[in-house]
Write a structure and sequence with these properties.
The protein is mainly beta and 717 residues long. It contains three helices and 49 strands. The strands form twelve sheets. Strands 3, 4, 5, 6, 8, 9, 11 and 12 form an eight-stranded antiparallel β-sheet that branches. Strands 15, 17, 18, 19, 20 and 21 form a six-stranded mixed β-sheet that branches. A hairpin with a 4-residue loop joins strand 33 and strand 34. The two termini are 64 Å apart.
Length: 717
């Protein structure tokens, strides 16, 4: 059967360092993890010689999903590499490969668990590495990597590369265990991953590490900040800020600014030193460069691709330079306005007009008398100033281009940054309404254990200093959602509220208040009102009890026949709690008994019907647990398990009846001896059979009918 598989391996790049040179030297270390897959196949367990090649993308020596070459087949089945080396040499002659790699093997009869190949020279024309080793003994299993590039995405040599190696089947020989000389797979199958198959679990069989040994490590580091967007050409300085550099290494350091084609625009001492307002419209990028002496190509108007030497670039930060557009906030007319606020009556302006504004974006702005932004309404008429409190505010119209910053509630107009213009302003005066005071409440804080059936009511809460026409106590959750509106704090039993934290407030308010209802949020109150301080009520969880899970049954007995009817094999698992009790109920959940164990109950005397076995876990203080009570009357911190059914059936009356006829006496003389004339009366029961025994009661035969009985030849007995 054709096996389908996906080539899987995990590649972890520990650190990538780029170089401009065209050759590099690496040490390769393979470390075994085969032992993690269970017992090894005896003293002969080993990885054969680690062989492979450096090459380019014009040749692939093996790949998952491909058919193994004769050379790969020989390595996979016996570890022999002569044919494989010939395949590599052919690729070398064609210019596709550069060199044949041959490292040592790894036997497990000593302490060594690594294969090391030192000073492997790789050039940029053949930057790929393929390696393979037989997992021996085995039918055709290998540890392998295919066409691993030692150049990074910027075409620079990596400093260190670490890979997890997994087992693969070459598809050339049958077998699922550690064995040699198995039947050939005919036809060959594609190579496939055997991770989690045969003798292998899902772990790696080894780790392969490439470490460059011929260069000084430099790292451009990681820069953070931005991205940045400026409107340029408007005479306002456009300098970046807050750019940070971390993790850089190397003798020399330089900040670089390029255009979007990586052409070098400038080499500033810091990113903050550049004023992009004079750079014209476009997009540029900031990099940090670390390098060693001898670097060439680092100059204005050159391209980063022309850098040559031992260097590394950081990530980049984008700087977008937009053209300035002429904007005009326009002229607004209407007002001034004056309202009495805080009385629950909507206070909206009307008749405000706008004329002469220009710009891509438009926004109405309301500020206080210090120019702090109070709101950003879609229109002036959308603002209800009744909730704004006493004071003076101003309405503006703002026109602006994309990229404006600082336009948010609580910010100041002086912090706007970008291409914008404000209109004239209209004054709105907000006068005070009737003063209400929610007062000051004292008491608590309170802390209860809830859910245990014990009433949890606060006490001793006092109210002082409240004023206003109307008064209401309010209970909220910790998000200020209204849970209840009790007449007094003491009226609330928090035991049924669940675990959490809630707060008690006193509310004073004038007529016309809206939003005062259960499930609403205090933020939705609208009118002339005031809330007191709050008192915290912490509702802690009761001890968690679990009746557990019982298993066994269901059971069915014939009761009233004098034979003990006890259940057996009932098990209990997962129960928690201070106290434990077995409970037997009828089918209406009335408690019939409280036995120490289910097995202690003899159901034979219980009469016909159906009952149920439960396990009960509970904490001290439980009430209602007594014979003849109902489970619905339990009160306290408790939990019942699932239930097991016990069906109690009535005993069936059976009667063997009375038989007449005989007795019979025969001579065993070779003549047929059959009984006849036997009759039965008064028998009852679901099943019937005739029985023939010897004088010791040993059953000699079981004829099913009278006809069969009369057909018995006793001469042969």
């Amino acid at each position: 059967m054709m096996k389908k598989c996906i080539f899987q391996f995990f590649l972890f790049i520990v650190c990538a360092i780029t170089y401009g040179q065209t050759t590099a030297t690496y040490d390769i270390v393979f470390t075994s993890n085969w032992e993690a897959h269970g017992p090894l196949p005896g003293p002969s367990a080993h990885f054969t010689e680690l062989v492979g090649a450096t090459h380019n993308s014009n040749v692939t020596f093996f790949e998952i999903g491909g058919i193994a070459t004769p050379g790969v087949e020989a390595v996979a089945e016996t570890g022999a590499d002569r044919t494989f080396s010939n395949e590599v040499n052919s690729a070398i002659q064609a210019g596709y490969a550069n060199q044949y790699i041959k490292g040592p093997n790894l036997f497990f009869n000593g302490s060594r668990r690594t294969i090391t190949i030192r000073d492997l020279s790789v050039n940029s024309n053949h930057p790929l590495v393929s390696l393979i080793s037989m997992i021996a003994p085995s039918p055709d299993w290998v540890a392998a990597v295919n066409s691993i590039s030692l150049l990074d995405d910027n075409n620079q040599w990596v400093s260190t590369l670490t890979m997890d190696i997994f087992p693969y089947d070459a598809g050339t020989e049958e077998g699922t265990g550690y064995s040699l000389n198995n039947p050939a797979t005919n036809p060959k199958e594609p190579m496939f991953n055997i991770r989690g198959m045969y003798t292998f679990n899902n772990q790696k069989v080894g780790t392969l590490v490439f470490t460059r040994t011929d260069a000084v490590a430099v790292d451009g580091g990681t820069i953070a900040g931005g991205p940045f967007e400026f409107t340029v050409g408007d005479g306002i300085a456009d300098n970046v800020s807050g750019v940070t550099l971390d993790g850089n290494t190397g003798t020399n350091s330089q900040w670089v600014v390029t255009d979007d084609q990586r052409n070098i625009l400038g080499l500033p001492p810091t990113p903050e030193a550049v004023n992009f307002d004079e750079a014209g419209v476009g997009t540029c990028f900031i990099y940090h460069l670390s390098y060693e002496d001898g670097l060439t190509g680092l100059e204005a108007d050159a391209n980063l691709s022309g850098l040559n030497g031992n260097y590394d670039l950081s990530n980049r930060i984008e700087v977008v330079r937009n053209a300035a557009v002429v904007v005009d906030g326009g002229t607004i007319a209407g007002g001034p306005f004056e309202f009495t606020v805080g009385d629950g009556i909507a206070d909206n302006v009307s008749g405000v007009t706008l004329d002469g504004n220009t710009g891509t974006n438009s926004q109405w702005v309301v500020t206080d008398d210090q120019r702090n932004i109070l709101g950003l309404p879609p229109t002036p008429e959308a603002v209800n100033f009744d909730g704004a409190g006493v004071g003076t505010c101003f309405i503006y119209h703002l026109s602006y281009e994309d990229g404006l910053t600082g336009l948010e509630a609580d910010a100041n107009l002086s912090g706007l940054n970008g291409n914008y213009d404000l209109s004239n302003r209209i004054e709105v005066v907000r006068n005070a309404a009737v003063v209400v005071d929610g007062g000051t409440i004292t008491g608590g804080p309170f802390e209860f254990t809830v859910g245990d059936g014990i009433a949890d009511n606060v006490s001793g809460v006092t109210l002082d200093g409240n004023t206003g026409t109307n008064s209401q106590w309010v209970v909220t959750d910790d998000q200020r959602n209204i849970l209840g509106l009790p007449p007094t704090p003491e009226a609330v039993n928090f035991d049924g509220a669940g675990v959490g934290t809630c707060f008690i407030y006193h509310l004073s308010y004038e007529d016309g208040l809206t939003g005062l209802e259960a499930d609403a949020n205090l933020s939705g109150l609208n009118g002339n009102y005031d809330l007191s301080n709050r008192i915290e009520v912490v509702r802690n969880a009761a001890v968690v009890v679990d009746g557990g899970t019982i298993a066994g049954g269901p059971f069915e007995f014939t009761v009233g026949d004098g034979i003990a009817d006890n259940v057996s094999g009932v098990t209990l698992d997962g129960n928690t709690g201070t106290n434990s009790q077995w409970v037997v109920t009828d089918d209406q959940r009335n408690i019939l008994g409280l036995p120490p164990t289910p097995e202690a109950v003899n159901f034979d005397g219980a009469g016909v019907g159906t009952c149920f076995i439960y396990h009960l876990s509970y904490e001290d203080g439980l009430t209602g647990l007594e014979a003849d009570a109902n489970l619905s009357g339990l009160n306290g911190n408790y939990d019942l398990s699932n239930r097991i059914e016990v069906v109690r059936n009535a005993a069936v009356v059976v009667d063997g009846g009375t038989i007449t006829g005989g007795p019979f006496t025969f001579c065993v003389d070779g003549e047929v001896d059959n009984v006849s004339g036997i009759e039965v009366s008064g028998s009852s029961g679901s099943n019937a059979s005739w029985v023939v025994t010897d004088d010791q009661g040993l059953i000699l035969g079981l004829p099913p009918t009278i006809e069969a009985l009369e057909g018995v030849n006793f001469d042969e007995a």
